[in-house]
Amino acid sequence: xxxxxxxxxxxxxxxxxRLRLDGGDWTDGRETVxxxxxxxxxxxxxxxxxxxxxxLGDALLRALxxxxxxxxxxxxxxxxxxxxxxYAGGGEYGFHVDGAVMSLxxxxxxxxxxxCTVFLNDPDEYDGGRLVISDTYGEHVVAKPAGDAVIYPxxxxxxxxxxxRGERIASFFWIQSLVxxxxxxxxLFELDTTIQKLTMDGADQDAVLQxxxxxxNLLRRWSxx
Length: 225
Ligand code: NI
Known about the structure:
By secondary structure, the protein is of the alpha+beta class.
């Protein structure tokens, strides 16, 4: 499921992030990829051990906690500390698939079920730089305003088009979901959204309770803790 999550960060927060990132410790984005990704990746990232990366990453995770839409759709179990990237001067990231298992430091690992991009500047500030996600329904082209996020299955092939004017700045990270399977997660999300709508519309309480019970029993069946 490809989902747009508007306004994860407020305009003030985006401005603060941008200011801090302008003075950031940027390095070659190939620092964090394997041999396959290194062939097609041309961008910059904040250094993985940079204190600024940790600080802004924590701020972004706190901001995400305000988003019920993110939680309903992703059902996060664990989240990799957010990274930050910058594309300019023709920089791009050709078609690739994200690694399935990521290190959280030491022996700790995370399975990447969902990929998330949070846009930190507006698409009119650059040419190109659109996120292209390829799935069984074809290619989806994504460019969202600063502060907005998109989530999509980590299993999909995706790329970032060359940035031919200006620069494109974003945060990206991976989520291990309580529910590994994208189709199951999607059904839970749709059921959850429908229950909320029925509740808002003042639907019969017993029927809403019954549906809520179905939601939790499916989550109990499908979730991994
Ligand atoms: Ni990727």
